[in-house]
Design brief:
Helix 6 packs across helix 7 and helix 6 crosses helix 8. Helix content is 33%, strand content 17%. The C terminus is likely disordered. The two termini are 46 Å apart. The chain has 339 residues and is α+β, with helices and mostly antiparallel strands. The strands form 4 sheets. Strands 1-2-3-4 form a 4-stranded antiparallel beta sheet, covered by helices on one side. The longest helix has 25 residues. This is Reverse transcriptase Ty1/copia-type domain-containing protein. InterPro entries: DNA/RNA_pol_sf, RVT_2. It comes from Vitis vinifera. It holds the Pfam family RVT_2.
Length: 339
């Protein structure tokens, strides 16, 4: 690091720098050094680092499990072994300066509340603060986050905007998508007439519960709707395979194949057909990836009608009626209550 201000050194040493013997708060290397130190302590206490998520630490003993997940210096501890949880808290208090905040209520901008129906996650305060920051607290609620059939393009003679402020705003909205999948497409919209790139989207469910979702603009232009759907299938399958590995770490072993729903018949036919065609050579790697999982009975492709495809709200701007129907199926029918 640069020499501190008012550091008394000779004139010959003014161009020298300090060599740090340990990381200081605020440096780029600090998070990595802290996490390395934390990982070493967790392993010393008998915890195993998950291969699926390196921020997850697990300990299984006497048929019980204790899990800790860390984000920078914020942690969540859970499990069905109260004695081990207490011992872990005492150990971490001795190793580091930290305190127990009690039952989980708020974590990195996400509010956690409990009821007889289960655990509810929301970002109400985060959303209100965002509205306050952008001076939109008095805005009126709408039925959909984006107009049906809207296509974006670069307007000629467009007035320049504050790029930094715009990027910060989009970044904050993207964080809001962690609990608001209905906003995902509006924030990642592609399909612009300028580049003609399609959008991939998926929902993943575990035990009938919505767990993860994503809406992402594809990196290349698809030559057909089947090719675009096929790339989306690959993206969703990769997420499902990762979730399966994570569940295995937690002790849940499923021998049932992953059900991957796709409403494009041509894309499903390509996945099942091992013969190389000119129309599939552009997605050759993806095709062999999905075909391998089909042959190994890891994944199956059940039929689904287009009107029942929930992921449509992640890949296109739909009408308010269709949007409401999909939110109802997702168990999020009240998600657009005014805030």
């Amino acid at each position: 690091m640069d020499l501190p201000l008012r550091c008394m050194v000779s004139e010959k040493q003014c161009q020298k720098v300090c060599k740090l013997k340990k990381s200081l708060y605020g440096l780029k290397q600090s998070p990595r050094a802290w996490f390395g130190r934390f990982t070493k302590s967790m392993r010393a206490f008998g915890y195993r680092q998950s291969n699926s998520d390196h921020t997850l630490f697990l300990k299984k003993q006497h048929g019980k499990i204790t899990a800790l997940i860390v984000y920078v210096d914020d942690m969540i501890v859970t499990g069905n072994d109260p004695e081990e949880i207490k011992a872990l808290q005492n150990y971490l208090s001795r190793e580091f300066e930290m305190k127990d905040l009690g039952p989980l209520k708020y974590f990195i901008g996400i509010e956690v509340s409990r009821s007889s129906e289960g655990i509810f996650l929301s970002q109400r305060k985060y959303a209100l603060d965002l509205l306050q920051e952008t001076r939109m607290s008095g805005c009126q609620p709408v039925n959909t986050p984006i107009e049906e059939g809207l296509k974006l393009c670069v307007e000629p003679n467009q007035v320049s905007t504050d790029k930094g402020r715009y990027q910060r705003l989009v970044g904050r909205l993207m964080y809001l998508v962690h609990t608001r999948p209905d906003l995902a497409y509006a924030l990642s919209v592609a399909g612009a007439v300028d580049d003609r790139r399609s959008t991939s989207g998926y929902f993943t469910f575990v035990g009938g519960n919505l767990v993860t979702w994503k809406s992402k603009k594809q990196n290349v232009v698809a030559r057909s709707s089947a090719e675009a759907e096929f790339r989306g299938m690959t993206l969703g399958l990769c997420e499902a395979l990762w979730l399966r590995l994570l569940l295995q770490d937690l002790g849940y072993l499923s021998r049932q194949p992953i059900r991957l729903f796709c409403d494009n018949k041509a894309a499903c036919d390509i996945a099942h057909n091992p013969v190389q065609h000119d129309r599939t050579k552009h997605v050759k790697v993806d095709r062999f990836f999905i075909k391998e999982k089909l042959d190994d009975k890891i994944v199956e492709l059940p039929k689904i009608r287009s009107e029942d495809q929930l992921a449509d709200i992640l890949t296109k701007a739909v009408s308010s009626q269709v949007f409401s129907k999909f939110l109802d199926k997702l168990g999020m029918c009240d998600i657009y209550a005014p805030t």
